[in-house]
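Action item from last meeting closed. Structure (180 res):
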């Protein structure tokens, strides 16, 4: 089994798990989870179950569920968003007055909303309910898979993908295309 990210052959079985749709119900599929010894990425066996990930981000991801999740995890979301925004600010070191940032898999926009007014904030989010919530935070959101959104090269100063790579069927192709 090759790693979906780095293509290493050094992968090992971690566990099997029934799919769970946003903690609401168990799915019918059983996923086998592997980990790469080289890059530490965990991934499912794509040959085991071909699936459309958009089903998992729309079926149980209603507006009410998004709001409930955000309320129940607001402290951890804010803490993580502040840490992530601090990392971005430290990397950029205030070299420009204004930055354009794209967060792929932006969810409800918690990370982007922690950034200062120095940022023009953009997100890509598969869930319509989460995209709507993010747009309420003055974030320009593209409600689509990243494969379905096209940007001109060098459109953004910063592109982030927090906790996203493991959700992509072919992450290497997506990363190679990133010239935003």
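Sequence:
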């Amino acid at each position: 089994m090759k790693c979906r990210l780095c293509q290493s052959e050094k992968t090992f079985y971690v566990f099997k798990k029934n799919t769970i749709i946003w903690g609401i119900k168990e799915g019918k599929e059983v996923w086998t989870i592997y980990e790469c010894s080289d890059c530490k990425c965990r991934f499912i066996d794509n040959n085991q179950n071909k699936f459309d990930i958009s089903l998992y981000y729309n079926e149980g991801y209603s507006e009410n569920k998004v709001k409930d999740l955000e309320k129940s995890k607001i402290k951890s979301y804010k803490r993580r968003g502040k840490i992530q925004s601090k990392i971005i600010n430290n990397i950029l070191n205030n070299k420009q007055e204004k930055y354009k940032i794209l967060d792929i898999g932006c969810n409800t926009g918690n990370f982007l909303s922690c950034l200062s007014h120095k940022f023009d904030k953009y997100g890509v989010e598969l869930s319509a309910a989460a995209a709507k919530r993010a747009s309420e935070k003055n974030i320009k959101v593209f409600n689509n898979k990243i494969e379905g959104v096209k940007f001109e090269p060098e459109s953004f100063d910063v592109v982030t993908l927090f906790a996203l790579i493991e959700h992509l069927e072919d992450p290497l192709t997506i990363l190679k295309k990133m010239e935003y």
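Note appended to the action item: The chain is about 25% helix and 25% strand.
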